[in-house]
Amino acid sequence: MNEVLMLPADCLSWEDHVDVVTGKNAGEIGGVGRTLWLRYFGEKRHQGRPNILIEDRQFVPEPFHSIIIDAVEGALAATASLRAESKLRLHGSRRFKTAGGDELGVADLLFLVLSGCKGELPAVIQDDVVIEVVAESSFYAFLTYSDNRKNTIFTRYGTGPDLEKLKIHPHSLRHLMNTEFFRLNIPDTVITHHFGRTTVVQSHVL
Fold first, then answer.
1. What CA–CA distance (Å, rounded) separates 3 from 193?
2. pLDDT tens digits for 2-33?
3. For residue 104, what are the contacts with CB-CB under 8 A and spacing of at least 6?
4. Cβ atoms within 10 Å of 195's Cβ, excluding its own
5. What does the mean pLDDT of the chain come to?
6. At what angle do helices 80-88 and 65-78 cross, to 10 degrees?
7. Whole-model pTM above 0.90?
8. Cβ neighbours of residue 8 under 8 Å, at least 6 residues apart?
9. 8-state DSSP, 88
10. How crowded is residue 149: how many other Cβ atoms within 10 Å of its Cβ?
11. Alpha-carbon distance 150 to 145, whole Å?
């Protein structure tokens, strides 16, 4: 969950592939000419440095290009005013350090909110309002892990009785995907890479 919440604003990157023999783009001679990658900060890889962000990237299969691009561009558009305002506030904003030695501010991340604000963003952002990264607790509440169960993923998109009683732990979704990958006979090395794990053994322990 934190890997999603802490996505950098420039999380999408394209890589062009050139045929070493002809010097042409690989797509012109029957290969793959371009691939899309999603940059993120991997969890469980802090190596004794819990305050350091470890950068990694995931390959985005072509069938998911439009979905991922639309989602990221939508988030960028929705948070544009917050990002612009945050860049004007040079002092008092949270800072994050990466393993590569870079330092990021709140404005460098994708999902931003006004602290304590509900509903639509105000036309004018007051100086005393804190601009922050979306909290993990907000997503837990959406999955009904909170006292307020009237606005959850189940009540918003589900149909049927007693929807407010339903809940799911976000880590269970990760376990479900892991299990499905094994059921589909996907190699454990691929599964390990997909989840950003350091050893194949971790993919077999749930």
1. 15
2. 788 889 999 999 999 998 889 999 988 988 89
3. 8, 53, 95, 96, 97, 98
4. 18
5. 83
6. 50
7. no
8. 39, 40, 41, 104, 108, 109, 110
9. H
10. 16
11. 12
